[in-house]
Design a protein that fits this description.
Blueprint: H1 2-14, H2 21-24, E1 34-37, E2 46-49, H3 54-64, H4 68-81, H5 86-99, H6 102-115, H7 119-128
Antiparallel strand pairs: 1-2
Helix pairs in contact: 3-4, 3-5, 4-5, 5-6, 6-7
Length: about 130
């Protein structure tokens, strides 16, 4: 591991980029690609992470500003480009839930859960099931 840290730091210095061992091995999405949404009946904030798709990132930005319709439209564009984009599907579900479009939210949560069994997707489905 130390060998790889040293290589990463050397690469940064050769490229003339200031970075530390922390930035070389930072894992996970940047804060710009995360929205935390206060969803009714959720015990905690619901975290939506954008995929690498630009429209998915735009959708997360709209979620952060509570522009639910704009978020839904951005996630739909992301899904038009990549129907298997589970993160955008989850974002679409959250946006629809926030707008009170429970049938659409339920369908999106169901599709996300079918693609990837994630507790957050299951919790979302449970929140909206039967509310429409």
């Amino acid at each position: 591991m130390k060998k790889y840290v040293a290589i990463g730091v050397v690469m940064c210095s050769l490229l003339g980029v200031g970075c530390s061992t922390e930035s070389v091995f930072r894992s996970g999405p940047s804060e710009d690609n995360i929205a935390r949404v206060d969803v009714e009946n959720a015990p905690d904030m619901v975290q939506v992470v954008a995929s690498s798709n630009a429209d998915s990132k735009a959708g997360v930005g709209h979620l952060r500003t509570q522009s639910w319709a704009d978020a839904a439209a951005a996630f739909e564009r992301a899904l038009a480009n990549n129907p298997g984009d589970v993160r955008s599907r989850f974002g679409l579900a959250v946006a629809n839930e926030q707008m009170g479009n429970y049938a659409a939210a339920e369908a999106a949560y169901r599709e996300a859960l079918f693609a990837k069994n994630v507790p957050e997707y299951e919790a979302g489905l449970a929140r909206v099931r039967g509310r429409h």
